[in-house]
Specification:
By secondary structure, this protein is an all-alpha fold. It is 77% helix and 0% strand. It is globular.
């Protein structure tokens, strides 16, 4: 007799996978609001590229969330628990923050815009801490691969709201209404946080705050040794650097090339979204045969090469948008998303999950994802200055060069010939 093997649909259509879809979408939307919608809003309101680039600094809470992650591990919310309690509170606050942001005018309230943007990033990062820990505790070991793949693709799908729908609406509605529609997409996540229960497999809270702070870091450095641990952390910092800098000013770049917000929303963002989702799904399937190490090499090189598409597009210069230019725009954006957002991120996320000890998932994963966020915050803050000094063509060549060190580090942290686990 053959053992019963569930179909793909039987595995997919479960309440756990539904939770991964909703939490993934809810986790991604605030980041893409800061990454896509905020620069477009500021550009439309007449801010310089230097100022828009500096606004990348508002995302710094993503790079420091490991500092307060132990608090979410140690303390719960009365009546809701540690995971769903912090999820629900951060989601309600995010909705209020986004509504307040849309009610401001960047030309007269720029300081308030910056402050609220930082608050949104802080709340988003706090939500991510709780969601990542919830997902790690919810999924059984055999469900981690599928659950995380679904989560990442739902995360990418969230880009459709601030990166496409909101840009299209911005050509027809006041900005407050655009931000209100965007905030409304967070409501299902807040409802879900009340509907679900705390994971049955969740470990107990650390006995003391000191245990919550110290033990995750002590375990990581003890397991790897100091030198290897530092190599792993450096790799997590540099692997997405070139790609992050290439895309941080993508929307202002497309606007300067002569494309309208609607054209960017319909062509670039949709092409990038679906290419990224397909890339993520195929990347997950290919990793089964390649293993994580070899996938990092192949997908990482592909991710780096796609930066050359921006070099090519910048070489074409500014001209009225026609069918050919729209095709060129869609091709560049889709290729970059397929290889970087799809393949590269899938392999990188798998590497982070493999490196995380399940007993310290919340704080360790917060540390790793914080390092992953550094390029799009600290380094990207200087992107506008670099573009104004170098021009778009030379800037994208610089991004290509900055992507190389992360690939070279693979020889140390993920050797090609090392047995795959």
């Amino acid at each position: 007799m053959h053992a019963f093997k569930p179909s793909v649909w039987q595995v997919l259509l479960t309440h756990k996978m539904l939770i991964c879809v909703v939490t993934g979408f809810t986790s991604g939307l605030p980041l893409f609001l800061l990454f896509n919608l905020l620069p477009a809003w500021l550009k439309t309101e007449g801010l310089s590229l230097k100022a828009i680039g500096a606004f990348a600094l508002v995302q710094f809470p993503y790079t420091w969330k490991f500092i307060w992650a132990p608090l979410a591990d140690r303390f719960g919310v009365p009546g809701l628990g540690r995971r769903r309690g912090w999820m629900f509170i951060s989601q309600l606050a995010l909705i209020a923050g986004i509504l307040a942001l849309g009610n401001l005018d960047p030309k007269t309230d720029l300081v308030s815009v910056a402050a609220l943007s930082i608050l949104i990033a802080f709340l988003s990062a706090s939500q991510d801490i709780a969601i990542d820990a919830y997902r790690r505790e919810l999924l059984a070991e055999q469900e981690l691969g599928l659950g995380n793949a679904i989560f990442v693709n739902a995360y990418k799908l969230a880009a459709l709201v601030p990166g496409s729908l909101a840009l299209i609406l911005a050509d027809h509605l006041p900005w407050f209404q655009v931000f209100a529609v965007t905030a409304a997409f967070l409501v299902p996540g807040a409802v879900l946080s009340l509907w679900v229960s705390e994971p049955a497999r969740a470990p107990g809270a650390p006995r003391t705050l000191r245990d919550a702070v110290v033990e995750p870091f002590h375990e990581f450095f003890t397991r790897h040794g100091l030198e290897n641990a530092l190599w792993v952390l450096a790799f997590m910092l540099f692997f997405k650097l070139g790609e992050a800098m290439a895309t941080t000013l993508a929307t202002p770049f497309y606007l300067e090339l002569g494309f309208s917000k609607t054209e960017i929303g319909l062509v670039a963002k949709n092409a990038g979204l679906w290419a990224g989702i397909v890339g993520g799904l195929l990347g997950g399937l290919w990793m089964v045969k390649l293993g994580i190490n070899r996938a990092l090499w192949i997908f990482g090189i592909a991710q780096t090469l796609t930066i050359l598409g921006f070099v090519w597009l910048s070489r074409l210069g500014t001209a009225p948008a026609d069918t050919l230019r729209l095709i060129q725009l869609g091709l560049v954006y889709a290729t970059e998303s397929f290889c970087s957002v799809g393949l590269g991120t899938t392999a990188f996320t798998a590497f982070m999950a493999r490196t995380t000890n399940p007993a310290f998932a919340a704080t360790q994963f917060a540390l790793f994802s914080s390092l992953m966020a550094v390029p799009r915050t600290v380094f990207n803050a200087f992107a506008g200055v670099l573009v104004e000094s170098l021009g778009w063509f030379n800037y994208y060549w610089l991004c290509f060069a900055l992507a190389v060190p992360g690939i070279l580090m693979l020889a140390k942290v993920a050797p090609w010939r090392e047995p795959q686990g």
